[in-house]
């Protein structure tokens, strides 16, 4: 029995969720912080139900928006089915925030003093299959001569360390800013506050997925951060996904490759 196969109960299934696998669109949607579910073997990680359902554990609303975009763009969606508190799939294994001992103001007791074996088990069960699958999807498409655009969907908390964030949508990028630039141009004059590399940027280590899967082959890419109070219910999620769909569609059409 491998480390990976005994990590989850049968009912929990596996780490990776894929929807619209046969999509014909160029965009590949990635949602690393889609879920607040903690695998049974970790109990509560020493956290209260409030913290376990808060932005500390996941990106509220992000998966719902990603699903709507998947429909509108005819895009395959890949998402992580378990909480970033156990393994944050937008971080490399060597990063302290991959298995954080603290998130914002909350200590994560279940992540204290992890052994090498425990870190390996989490990496093997959650991180490796997730990024393997992203790589496979990209490689399969490239083998068919298809174009791939990597778009990751996140949400952020409106109040962080006691401070309110004015930005409503963050368009984040690493060294390849082509798609982000086009989206920011398209967002000029929009009713929403759309900012570049805000509230996070590459210096915070948040472009890991882009660095793994888009930058090496020069694939167009962007990371989208949505303030989570704007996507709290279905109506809001529909509005924001419509806004992003239009913005992304125009941006992609404006880029000559
Ligand atoms: Zn996130």
Low-pLDDT runs of 5+ residues are: none
* Percent range of helical residues: 25-40%
Main sheet: strands, sense, barrel? 7 strands, mixed
Mean pLDDT: 96
Tertiary shape: globular
Portion in beta strands: 15-25%
Strand order in space, largest sheet: 1-3-2-6-11-9-10
Series of secondary-structure elements, N-terminal to C-terminal: EEHHEEEHEEEEHEHEH
> What class, by secondary structure content?
alpha/beta
Number of helices: 6
Distance between the termini: 47 Å
Radius of gyration: 18 Å
What small molecules accompany the polymer chains?
zinc ion
Would you report the number of β strands? 11
Question: What attributes characterize this protein structure?
Answer:
alpha/beta, single chain, binds zinc ion, 257 residues, 7-stranded mixed sheet
Plain-language structure description:
By secondary structure, the protein is an alpha/beta fold. Helix content is 31%, strand content 17%. The chain contains six helices and eleven strands. It has a seven-stranded mixed β-sheet with strand order 1-3-2-6-11-9-10, with helices on both faces. Helix 4 crosses helix 6. The model has no long low-confidence stretch (mean pLDDT 96). The structure holds zinc ion. The site of zinc ion has 3 residues, from loops.
């Amino acid at each position: 029995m491998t480390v990976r196969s005994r990590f989850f109960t049968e009912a929990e299934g596996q780490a990776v969720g894929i929807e619209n696998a046969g999509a014909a669109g160029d965009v590949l949607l990635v949602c690393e912080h889609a879920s607040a579910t903690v695998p049974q073997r970790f109990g509560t990680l020493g956290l209260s139900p409030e913290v376990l359902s808060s932005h500390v554990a996941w990106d509220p609303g992000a998966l719902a928006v990603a699903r709507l975009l998947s429909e509108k763009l005819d895009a395959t969606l890949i998402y992580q089915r378990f909480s970033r508190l156990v393994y944050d799939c937008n971080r490399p294994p060597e990063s302290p925030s991959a298995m954080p001992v603290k998130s914002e103001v909350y200590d994560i007791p279940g992540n204290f003093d992890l052994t090498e074996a425990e870190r390996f088990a989490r990496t093997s069960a959650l991180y490796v299959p997730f990024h393997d699958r992203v790589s496979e999807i990209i490689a399969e498409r490239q083998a068919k001569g298809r174009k791939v655009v990597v778009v990751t969907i996140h949400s952020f908390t409106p109040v962080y360390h006691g401070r309110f964030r004015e930005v409503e949508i963050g368009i984040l990028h690493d060294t390849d800013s082509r798609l982000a630039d086009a989206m920011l141009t398209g967002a000029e004059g929009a009713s929403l506050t759309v900012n570049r590399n805000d509230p996070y940027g590459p210096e915070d280590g948040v472009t890991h997925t882009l660095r793994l899967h888009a930058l090496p082959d020069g694939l167009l890419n962007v990371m989208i951060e949505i303030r989570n109070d704007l996507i709290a219910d279905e109506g809001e999620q529909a509005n924001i996904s419509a806004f992003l769909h239009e913005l992304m569609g125009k941006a992609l059409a404006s880029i000559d490759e």
